[in-house]
Amino acid sequence: MTRFTTSDGVGLYYKDWGTGRPVLFSHGWPLSADMWDSQMLHLAENGFRAIAFDRRGFGRSDQPWQGYDYDRLADDIAELIGHLDLRDVVLVGFSMGGGDVTRYIARHGSERVGKLALLGAVTPQFMKTAGHPVGPEKSLFDGIRAGLRADRAQFLKDFSPVFYGVHHGAAVSDGVLEQTLQIALQASLKATLDCVTSFSETDFHPDMATIDVPTLVIHGDDDQVVPLDATGALAAKLIANATLTVYDGAPHGFVVTHDARLKADLLAFAR
């Protein structure tokens, strides 16, 4: 397996396919780099170098007790970019992963970044607060943590139909649902819990002003997990030189349900 070790001693797994301009993918919760296989293959077959890593605590990466705040996660990305000496990289972040690629730019600048894509991302803020009155209530995330502690496997199995919009009529195979659960259960329980707190409570509003590269924001208007009006629509307004593309009827997991359109959009954006 292809791995590197971070400055705090955590081994991270990554895939590195193809040659050309690098496109670096950051996955959503509670998944791994495997969620990107279809998009990575498409880009690698069309002249790009597609790279995706397993976040610490998830997939095939090490499972440390700590380090699940966005500053550390952004530093992991910075160290991977430095390890591979990537330049003019296209950063792509989905859901929780949209936060760490955004925080990467805020902490490390855009010297090595050419473009940014935020897909169903939690930016600029997920949870409802006094300053962000449009997000879900804290009680929702308290319930997620309680469900994970009580029966993680069943909780995640029940979560997938909402993630993919199956309950709203989306056609997703049993194989996809089984693979999603298998990937999610590779993660440590500690990482799975801590990241709920990170992606729900982190405020990325200050980070938005630091983004100075062309940015593509893609979001589904039937996203029942990360609501469009509370996240993607606001992010596109706050980021200079951002383009918002709304997928009509798309759920949160449009990486699967709208795979063909997403591959075409990412390829055009990367070019």
UniProtKB/TrEMBL annotation:
SUPFAM superfamilies for this protein: alpha/beta-Hydrolases (SSF53474)
Record protein name field: Alpha/beta hydrolase
Domain AB hydrolase-1: 22-258
The species this protein was found in: Gluconacetobacter dulcium
Keyword vocabulary terms for this entry: Hydrolase
Keyword Kinase: no
Similarity comment text for this entry: Belongs to the AB hydrolase superfamily. Bacterial non-heme haloperoxidase / perhydrolase family.
Gene3D superfamilies: alpha/beta hydrolase
Upper lineage: Bacteria, Pseudomonadati, Pseudomonadota, Alphaproteobacteria, Acetobacterales
Keyword Hydrolase: yes
Pfam families on file: Abhydrolase_1
Entry GO MF terms: hydrolase activity
